[in-house]
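Can't paste images in this forum, so I'm doing it all in text. The chain is below; anyone willing to post the predicted C-alpha cells underneath?
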Amino acid sequence: MLKTFLVLICLALLLFGGGYLFLKSIVRDIAIEPGSGYDPKLVFEKTLCRPIPSSVQNLQGDAFTWQGYSAYLRFNASDSDINLLLKQGFEKIPMSNVDSLISLYFQHPNISKIFFSPPWNPEIIKVKECYGMDNISNDWTNSASKWLIIDRSKNEIYFVGFGT
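Text version of the structure:
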C-alpha cells in the first residue's frame, strides 16, 4: 500500500513539475551504495589535488566510500591547470588500451545519467588523451589508482579514482 502511494506521488510530481529533483533525491537514497553524496569539491580535494586549481569550472561528481572508495568527477580547466594536474606523476596510457580502460574504470555506477548533466559519457570524446597513476595515497586511502581522460577540444576532464 505504501509503495503504491509513493509511486502515485512520484507520478504526480512528474506530471505537475518539480518531479525531477524529487526523484533524484529518492534514487540517490535508495539506489546508490552506502557513503555516497559527497560534495564534488571535497571529492576533488581528497582524491585529485588540493587546492582546486582556479580555472576549474563545471565541476560535477560524487564518491562512494565503503571499504575503500570510488570517485567520479567531470570538469573543465585551462590548459595550464590540466598540465599542472598531469605533473603529479600521471603516465600517458597508449591509445590501444584506452577503450578497455574506459570499459573497466569509467563506467559510472547507477547515477551516470541522473547526477551528471550532460550524462557521463567519455566514450563520445573523439580525440582522447588518457593518463593514469597507481600505488598512490591520499586523504582516503594508502593504496589508490587514479585515471584521467581529457578532451582538449573542450578542456574537459573525466576523472576516476579508486582506493582500497
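Residues 1-31 form one domain. The CA atoms of residues 35 and 65 lie 5 Å apart.
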